[in-house]
Amino acid sequence: MIPYGRQNISQEDVDAVISVLNSDFLTQGPEVPKFENKICSITGSKYALAVNSATSALHLSCLALGLKEHEWLWTTPISFAASSNCALYCGAKVDFVDIDPLTYNLCPIKLEEKLIQAEKENRLPKIVVPVHLSGQSCKMEEIARLSRKYGFSIIEDASHAIGGHYQSAPIGKCEYSDITVFSFHPVKIVTTAEGGIACTNNEMLAKRIELLRSHGITRDPNAMTEASKGDWYYQQIDLGFNYRMTDLQAALGTSQLARLKENISARHQIANIYNKTLIHLPLLTPHQTKNAYSAFHLYIIRLDPARCNRSRDEVFNELRAGGIGVNLHYIPIYRHPYYSKFGYDPKDFPNAEAYYSEAISLPIFPTLGQENQNVVIKAIAKALE
Ligand SMILES: *Cc1c(COP(=O)(O)O)cnc(C)c1O
Protein backbone atom coordinates (compact mmCIF):
# COMPACT_ATOMS: atom_id res chain seq x y z
CA MET A 1 0.00 0.00 0.00
CA ILE A 2 1.33 3.48 -0.90
CA PRO A 3 0.28 5.60 2.12
CA TYR A 4 -1.10 9.15 1.80
CA GLY A 5 1.64 10.45 4.08
CA ARG A 6 4.78 9.10 5.67
CA GLN A 7 7.44 10.40 8.04
CA ASN A 8 10.97 10.87 6.80
CA ILE A 9 13.64 9.93 9.39
CA SER A 10 17.29 10.52 8.47
CA GLN A 11 20.44 9.18 10.13
CA GLU A 12 20.92 12.69 11.60
CA ASP A 13 17.49 12.41 13.23
CA VAL A 14 18.40 9.04 14.74
CA ASP A 15 21.75 10.37 16.00
CA ALA A 16 20.06 13.43 17.55
CA VAL A 17 17.69 11.24 19.58
CA ILE A 18 20.45 8.84 20.64
CA SER A 19 22.62 11.68 21.87
CA VAL A 20 19.77 12.82 24.16
CA LEU A 21 19.40 9.25 25.45
CA ASN A 22 23.07 9.37 26.42
CA SER A 23 22.77 12.79 28.06
CA ASP A 24 21.71 13.92 31.55
CA PHE A 25 18.18 14.99 30.61
CA LEU A 26 15.47 12.97 28.88
CA THR A 27 12.94 15.68 29.64
CA GLN A 28 13.04 19.27 30.95
CA GLY A 29 16.60 19.66 29.63
CA PRO A 30 18.10 21.99 27.01
CA GLU A 31 16.51 20.45 23.88
CA VAL A 32 12.99 21.83 24.33
CA PRO A 33 14.06 25.51 24.53
CA LYS A 34 16.40 24.89 21.57
CA PHE A 35 13.48 23.51 19.53
CA GLU A 36 11.26 26.42 20.58
CA ASN A 37 13.92 28.93 19.50
CA LYS A 38 14.24 27.19 16.15
CA ILE A 39 10.45 27.44 15.64
CA CYS A 40 10.58 31.16 16.54
CA SER A 41 13.33 31.74 13.99
CA ILE A 42 11.41 29.88 11.26
CA THR A 43 8.01 31.50 11.93
CA GLY A 44 9.08 34.90 13.20
CA SER A 45 6.89 34.57 16.29
CA LYS A 46 8.20 36.00 19.57
CA TYR A 47 7.30 33.00 21.74
CA ALA A 48 6.86 29.28 21.07
CA LEU A 49 5.73 26.80 23.73
CA ALA A 50 6.29 23.13 22.91
CA VAL A 51 3.83 20.56 24.25
CA ASN A 52 3.03 16.86 23.78
CA SER A 53 0.50 17.35 20.95
CA ALA A 54 -1.32 19.97 18.90
CA THR A 55 -4.45 18.87 20.76
CA SER A 56 -2.81 19.97 24.03
CA ALA A 57 -1.63 23.21 22.40
CA LEU A 58 -5.22 23.96 21.29
CA HIS A 59 -6.55 23.20 24.77
CA LEU A 60 -3.99 25.44 26.49
CA SER A 61 -4.58 28.18 23.92
CA CYS A 62 -8.30 28.18 24.71
CA LEU A 63 -7.55 28.32 28.45
CA ALA A 64 -4.99 31.10 28.00
CA LEU A 65 -7.55 33.14 26.05
CA GLY A 66 -10.00 32.62 28.90
CA LEU A 67 -12.63 30.46 27.16
CA LYS A 68 -15.28 29.60 29.71
CA GLU A 69 -18.44 27.59 30.12
CA HIS A 70 -21.36 28.81 27.98
CA GLU A 71 -19.03 30.74 25.67
CA TRP A 72 -18.68 29.80 22.01
CA LEU A 73 -15.80 28.64 19.84
CA TRP A 74 -16.38 28.56 16.09
CA THR A 75 -14.33 26.60 13.58
CA THR A 76 -14.62 24.85 10.22
CA PRO A 77 -16.42 21.49 10.04
CA ILE A 78 -13.79 20.18 7.58
CA SER A 79 -11.05 19.47 10.11
CA PHE A 80 -9.81 16.94 12.61
CA ALA A 81 -12.06 16.93 15.68
CA ALA A 82 -9.26 18.33 17.88
CA SER A 83 -9.96 21.76 16.31
CA SER A 84 -13.27 21.89 18.20
CA ASN A 85 -12.74 19.39 21.06
CA CYS A 86 -10.50 22.03 22.69
CA ALA A 87 -13.61 24.12 23.41
CA LEU A 88 -15.49 21.17 24.91
CA TYR A 89 -12.56 20.54 27.31
CA CYS A 90 -13.21 24.05 28.65
CA GLY A 91 -16.93 23.39 29.05
CA ALA A 92 -17.58 25.83 26.19
CA LYS A 93 -19.84 25.34 23.17
CA VAL A 94 -18.94 24.73 19.53
CA ASP A 95 -20.46 25.98 16.31
CA PHE A 96 -19.26 25.66 12.73
CA VAL A 97 -18.85 28.04 9.80
CA ASP A 98 -19.25 26.57 6.31
CA ILE A 99 -16.24 26.29 4.00
CA ASP A 100 -15.19 28.26 0.94
CA PRO A 101 -16.12 26.09 -2.07
CA LEU A 102 -12.77 26.78 -3.78
CA THR A 103 -10.19 26.49 -1.00
CA TYR A 104 -12.20 24.27 1.42
CA ASN A 105 -11.05 26.55 4.25
CA LEU A 106 -13.36 28.41 6.64
CA CYS A 107 -15.18 30.98 4.47
CA PRO A 108 -14.86 34.62 5.65
CA ILE A 109 -18.10 35.57 3.85
CA LYS A 110 -20.06 32.84 5.65
CA LEU A 111 -18.30 33.87 8.85
CA GLU A 112 -19.50 37.46 8.47
CA GLU A 113 -23.09 36.34 7.76
CA LYS A 114 -23.05 34.14 10.84
CA LEU A 115 -21.54 36.91 13.00
CA ILE A 116 -24.26 39.38 11.94
CA GLN A 117 -26.90 36.83 12.95
CA ALA A 118 -25.11 35.89 16.19
CA GLU A 119 -24.80 39.53 17.23
CA LYS A 120 -28.59 39.89 17.04
CA GLU A 121 -29.02 36.75 19.14
CA ASN A 122 -26.31 37.74 21.60
CA ARG A 123 -24.22 34.61 21.05
CA LEU A 124 -21.06 35.94 19.41
CA PRO A 125 -18.03 33.62 19.59
CA LYS A 126 -15.19 34.20 22.04
CA ILE A 127 -12.72 32.35 19.79
CA VAL A 128 -12.61 31.46 16.08
CA VAL A 129 -10.25 28.69 14.93
CA PRO A 130 -9.35 28.92 11.23
CA VAL A 131 -7.70 25.69 10.03
CA HIS A 132 -5.20 25.89 7.17
CA LEU A 133 -6.42 22.77 5.39
CA SER A 134 -3.69 20.85 3.56
CA GLY A 135 -1.23 23.64 4.40
CA GLN A 136 -2.82 26.56 2.53
CA SER A 137 -3.53 29.57 4.71
CA CYS A 138 -7.07 30.77 5.32
CA LYS A 139 -7.89 34.35 4.31
CA MET A 140 -6.48 35.63 7.58
CA GLU A 141 -6.60 39.34 6.76
CA GLU A 142 -10.39 39.15 6.27
CA ILE A 143 -10.89 37.00 9.37
CA ALA A 144 -8.76 39.40 11.46
CA ARG A 145 -10.82 42.36 10.22
CA LEU A 146 -13.97 40.60 11.47
CA SER A 147 -12.27 39.78 14.79
CA ARG A 148 -11.70 43.49 15.43
CA LYS A 149 -15.31 44.32 14.55
CA TYR A 150 -16.91 41.52 16.59
CA GLY A 151 -14.32 41.13 19.33
CA PHE A 152 -13.29 37.48 19.09
CA SER A 153 -9.81 35.98 19.51
CA ILE A 154 -8.17 33.87 16.79
CA ILE A 155 -6.26 30.59 17.14
CA GLU A 156 -4.81 29.41 13.82
CA ASP A 157 -4.84 25.62 13.67
CA ALA A 158 -1.78 25.30 11.44
CA SER A 159 -1.31 21.57 12.09
CA HIS A 160 -0.88 21.10 8.31
CA ALA A 161 1.01 24.26 7.58
CA ILE A 162 4.54 24.51 8.94
CA GLY A 163 6.73 25.89 6.15
CA GLY A 164 3.79 27.57 4.43
CA HIS A 165 3.46 31.33 3.86
CA TYR A 166 0.61 33.82 3.84
CA GLN A 167 1.15 37.14 2.08
CA SER A 168 4.87 37.67 2.70
CA ALA A 169 5.10 36.08 6.16
CA PRO A 170 5.65 32.53 7.35
CA ILE A 171 2.58 30.87 8.85
CA GLY A 172 3.09 31.04 12.62
CA LYS A 173 4.12 34.70 12.71
CA CYS A 174 0.67 35.48 14.18
CA GLU A 175 0.25 38.72 12.24
CA TYR A 176 -3.49 38.10 12.09
CA SER A 177 -4.03 35.89 15.13
CA ASP A 178 -3.41 35.59 18.86
CA ILE A 179 -1.91 32.12 18.71
CA THR A 180 -0.84 29.67 15.99
CA VAL A 181 -0.67 25.93 16.70
CA PHE A 182 1.38 23.32 14.83
CA SER A 183 1.26 19.49 15.07
CA PHE A 184 4.25 17.17 14.88
CA HIS A 185 2.39 13.87 14.59
CA PRO A 186 4.20 11.51 12.14
CA VAL A 187 1.68 12.06 9.31
CA LYS A 188 2.35 15.82 9.45
CA ILE A 189 5.15 17.68 7.67
CA VAL A 190 7.67 17.62 10.54
CA THR A 191 7.49 15.04 13.32
CA THR A 192 8.48 14.63 16.95
CA ALA A 193 6.52 11.30 17.10
CA GLU A 194 3.88 13.08 19.18
CA GLY A 195 4.10 16.79 19.72
CA GLY A 196 2.74 20.24 19.13
CA ILE A 197 3.61 23.88 19.69
CA ALA A 198 1.81 27.16 20.30
CA CYS A 199 3.32 30.32 18.79
CA THR A 200 2.34 33.79 19.95
CA ASN A 201 3.65 37.36 20.13
CA ASN A 202 1.75 38.03 23.36
CA GLU A 203 3.87 37.66 26.51
CA MET A 204 0.85 37.16 28.80
CA LEU A 205 -0.51 34.32 26.65
CA ALA A 206 2.94 32.73 26.43
CA LYS A 207 3.34 32.83 30.23
CA ARG A 208 -0.11 31.32 30.76
CA ILE A 209 0.54 28.45 28.33
CA GLU A 210 3.95 27.82 29.89
CA LEU A 211 2.42 27.65 33.37
CA LEU A 212 -0.49 25.41 32.38
CA ARG A 213 1.59 22.89 30.41
CA SER A 214 3.41 21.96 33.61
CA HIS A 215 0.77 21.54 36.36
CA GLY A 216 0.33 25.26 37.01
CA ILE A 217 3.61 25.17 38.93
CA THR A 218 6.00 28.12 38.91
CA ARG A 219 9.63 28.55 39.96
CA ASP A 220 9.56 32.25 39.08
CA PRO A 221 9.86 34.28 42.34
CA ASN A 222 7.89 37.14 40.74
CA ALA A 223 4.87 34.88 40.21
CA MET A 224 4.84 33.54 43.80
CA THR A 225 2.54 34.60 46.62
CA GLU A 226 5.45 34.95 49.06
CA ALA A 227 9.23 35.33 48.87
CA SER A 228 10.97 32.24 47.47
CA LYS A 229 12.60 30.07 50.12
CA GLY A 230 15.45 29.06 47.78
CA ASP A 231 16.31 27.18 44.58
CA TRP A 232 14.30 24.13 45.61
CA TYR A 233 11.10 26.10 46.25
CA TYR A 234 8.14 26.16 43.87
CA GLN A 235 4.44 26.94 44.06
CA GLN A 236 1.38 25.60 42.30
CA ILE A 237 -0.59 28.75 41.53
CA ASP A 238 -3.14 27.36 39.08
CA LEU A 239 -4.57 23.99 38.02
CA GLY A 240 -2.48 22.92 35.03
CA PHE A 241 -1.62 19.67 33.25
CA ASN A 242 1.37 17.57 32.35
CA TYR A 243 1.45 18.44 28.65
CA ARG A 244 5.23 18.74 28.36
CA MET A 245 7.29 17.70 25.34
CA THR A 246 10.33 15.51 26.12
CA ASP A 247 13.90 16.34 25.13
CA LEU A 248 13.96 13.21 22.94
CA GLN A 249 11.05 14.60 20.94
CA ALA A 250 12.46 18.12 20.77
CA ALA A 251 15.84 16.88 19.51
CA LEU A 252 14.07 14.91 16.77
CA GLY A 253 12.06 18.02 15.87
CA THR A 254 15.10 20.31 15.67
CA SER A 255 16.87 17.81 13.44
CA GLN A 256 13.77 17.48 11.21
CA LEU A 257 13.42 21.26 10.88
CA ALA A 258 16.88 21.44 9.27
CA ARG A 259 15.24 19.82 6.20
CA LEU A 260 11.99 21.84 6.24
CA LYS A 261 12.69 23.84 3.06
CA GLU A 262 13.62 20.80 0.96
CA ASN A 263 10.65 18.94 2.45
CA ILE A 264 8.22 21.64 1.29
CA SER A 265 9.79 22.00 -2.14
CA ALA A 266 9.64 18.21 -2.63
CA ARG A 267 5.92 18.41 -1.82
CA HIS A 268 5.46 21.22 -4.35
CA GLN A 269 7.23 19.15 -6.98
CA ILE A 270 4.85 16.24 -6.37
CA ALA A 271 1.85 18.60 -6.41
CA ASN A 272 2.99 20.13 -9.72
CA ILE A 273 3.21 16.69 -11.33
CA TYR A 274 -0.29 15.81 -10.09
CA ASN A 275 -1.59 19.19 -11.32
CA LYS A 276 -0.21 18.61 -14.82
CA THR A 277 -1.15 14.98 -15.23
CA LEU A 278 -4.63 14.99 -13.66
CA ILE A 279 -5.91 18.10 -15.41
CA HIS A 280 -7.72 16.19 -18.17
CA LEU A 281 -9.66 13.99 -15.76
CA PRO A 282 -13.15 14.83 -14.43
CA LEU A 283 -11.84 16.22 -11.16
CA LEU A 284 -10.66 19.44 -9.53
CA THR A 285 -7.03 19.81 -8.50
CA PRO A 286 -6.30 21.95 -5.39
CA HIS A 287 -7.03 25.62 -5.95
CA GLN A 288 -4.07 27.80 -4.97
CA THR A 289 -4.79 31.33 -3.75
CA LYS A 290 -2.44 34.03 -5.02
CA ASN A 291 -1.17 35.30 -1.70
CA ALA A 292 -0.58 31.90 -0.09
CA TYR A 293 2.27 29.42 -0.43
CA SER A 294 0.93 26.05 0.69
CA ALA A 295 2.96 23.59 2.74
CA PHE A 296 1.14 20.78 0.85
CA HIS A 297 0.66 18.47 3.81
CA LEU A 298 -2.23 17.06 1.76
CA TYR A 299 -3.04 16.90 -1.94
CA ILE A 300 -6.84 16.82 -2.15
CA ILE A 301 -8.70 16.19 -5.39
CA ARG A 302 -12.44 16.60 -5.81
CA LEU A 303 -14.44 14.55 -8.24
CA ASP A 304 -16.55 16.79 -10.46
CA PRO A 305 -20.03 15.24 -10.43
CA ALA A 306 -20.98 17.19 -13.58
CA ARG A 307 -18.29 15.35 -15.56
CA CYS A 308 -17.73 12.16 -13.56
CA ASN A 309 -20.22 9.30 -13.56
CA ARG A 310 -18.64 7.38 -10.70
CA SER A 311 -19.22 8.13 -7.04
CA ARG A 312 -16.42 9.14 -4.71
CA ASP A 313 -16.87 5.91 -2.75
CA GLU A 314 -16.53 3.77 -5.88
CA VAL A 315 -13.37 5.57 -6.93
CA PHE A 316 -12.01 5.59 -3.38
CA ASN A 317 -12.58 1.86 -2.88
CA GLU A 318 -11.11 0.96 -6.24
CA LEU A 319 -7.95 2.96 -5.47
CA ARG A 320 -7.61 1.34 -2.05
CA ALA A 321 -8.13 -2.12 -3.53
CA GLY A 322 -5.33 -1.28 -5.98
CA GLY A 323 -2.89 -0.49 -3.17
CA ILE A 324 -3.22 3.30 -3.20
CA GLY A 325 -3.67 4.48 0.39
CA VAL A 326 -6.04 7.33 -0.41
CA ASN A 327 -7.76 8.99 2.51
CA LEU A 328 -10.50 11.46 3.35
CA HIS A 329 -9.78 14.73 5.17
CA TYR A 330 -12.25 15.05 6.77
CA ILE A 331 -15.62 13.71 7.83
CA PRO A 332 -17.42 16.94 8.84
CA ILE A 333 -16.98 17.18 12.62
CA TYR A 334 -20.72 17.74 13.20
CA ARG A 335 -21.36 14.26 11.70
CA HIS A 336 -19.47 12.42 14.46
CA PRO A 337 -21.83 10.61 16.87
CA TYR A 338 -20.35 12.44 19.87
CA TYR A 339 -21.34 15.75 18.30
CA SER A 340 -24.88 14.67 17.39
CA LYS A 341 -26.20 15.67 20.83
CA PHE A 342 -25.42 19.32 20.05
CA GLY A 343 -28.05 19.28 17.29
CA TYR A 344 -26.23 20.50 14.15
CA ASP A 345 -28.07 20.32 10.84
CA PRO A 346 -25.93 19.25 7.85
CA LYS A 347 -28.17 21.44 5.67
CA ASP A 348 -26.57 24.48 7.32
CA PHE A 349 -23.24 23.50 5.71
CA PRO A 350 -23.93 22.83 2.02
CA ASN A 351 -20.33 23.44 0.89
CA ALA A 352 -18.93 21.08 3.54
CA GLU A 353 -21.50 18.44 2.59
CA ALA A 354 -20.65 18.65 -1.12
CA TYR A 355 -16.94 18.50 -0.31
CA TYR A 356 -17.50 15.48 1.93
CA SER A 357 -19.08 13.52 -0.92
CA GLU A 358 -16.41 14.39 -3.51
CA ALA A 359 -12.97 14.72 -1.85
CA ILE A 360 -10.05 12.28 -1.94
CA SER A 361 -6.56 12.82 -0.47
CA LEU A 362 -3.81 11.40 -2.69
CA PRO A 363 -0.38 10.24 -1.46
CA ILE A 364 2.04 13.13 -0.97
CA PHE A 365 5.28 12.98 1.04
CA PRO A 366 8.91 13.79 0.17
CA THR A 367 10.04 10.18 -0.41
CA LEU A 368 7.04 9.18 -2.55
CA GLY A 369 9.20 8.99 -5.71
CA GLN A 370 8.30 9.40 -9.37
CA GLU A 371 7.66 5.68 -9.87
CA ASN A 372 5.11 5.42 -7.07
CA GLN A 373 3.51 8.68 -8.15
CA ASN A 374 3.07 7.26 -11.66
CA VAL A 375 1.35 4.22 -10.15
CA VAL A 376 -1.05 6.57 -8.34
CA ILE A 377 -1.73 8.66 -11.45
CA LYS A 378 -2.40 5.59 -13.62
CA ALA A 379 -4.74 4.13 -11.02
CA ILE A 380 -6.79 7.35 -10.85
CA ALA A 381 -7.00 7.60 -14.62
CA LYS A 382 -8.20 4.00 -14.77
CA ALA A 383 -10.74 4.49 -11.97
CA LEU A 384 -12.21 7.49 -13.78
CA GLU A 385 -12.18 6.21 -17.36
C1 LIG B 1 -3.37 16.43 13.41
C2 LIG B 1 -4.28 17.56 13.66
C3 LIG B 1 -4.58 18.01 14.96
C4 LIG B 1 -4.11 17.28 16.19
O1 LIG B 1 -2.75 17.11 16.22
P1 LIG B 1 -2.10 16.17 17.34
O2 LIG B 1 -0.68 16.63 17.38
O3 LIG B 1 -2.23 14.76 16.83
O4 LIG B 1 -2.82 16.38 18.61
C5 LIG B 1 -5.38 19.12 15.10
N1 LIG B 1 -5.88 19.76 14.04
C6 LIG B 1 -5.63 19.36 12.78
C7 LIG B 1 -6.20 20.13 11.64
C8 LIG B 1 -4.83 18.24 12.55
O5 LIG B 1 -4.62 17.81 11.30
Structure description:
With 385 residues, this protein is of the alpha/beta class. Helices cover 38% and strands 14% of the residues. It has a 7-stranded mixed beta sheet with strand order 1-9-8-5-4-2-3, with helices on both faces. A 3-stranded antiparallel beta sheet has the order 7-6-13, with no helix packed on it. It is globular, with a radius of gyration of 21 Å. The model has no long low-confidence stretch (mean pLDDT 97). Bound molecules: pyridoxal-5'-phosphate. Pyridoxal-5'-phosphate is lined by residues 53-55, 79-80, 82-83, 131, 157, 159-160, 183, 185, 196. Pyridoxal-5'-phosphate (PLP) binds at residues 53-55, 79-80, 82-83, 131, 157, 159-160, 183, 185, 196.
Write the layout of secondary structure elements.
Blueprint (H helix, E strand, L loop, with lengths): L10 H11 L9 H13 L3 E5 L2 H11 L7 E4 L6 H8 L3 E4 L11 H13 L6 E3 L10 H11 L2 E5 L7 E2 L2 E2 L8 E5 L12 E5 L2 H10 L4 E2 L16 E2 L10 H11 L2 H19 L4 E2 L7 E2 L5 E5 L8 H10 L15 H4 L9 H9 E4 L7 H15 L1
Parallel strand pairs: 2-3, 2-4, 4-5, 5-8
Antiparallel strand pairs: 1-9, 6-7, 6-13, 8-9, 10-11, 12-14, 14-15
Helix pairs in contact: 1-8, 2-8, 3-4, 3-7, 5-6, 9-13, 10-13
The chain binds pyridoxal-5'-phosphate (PLP).
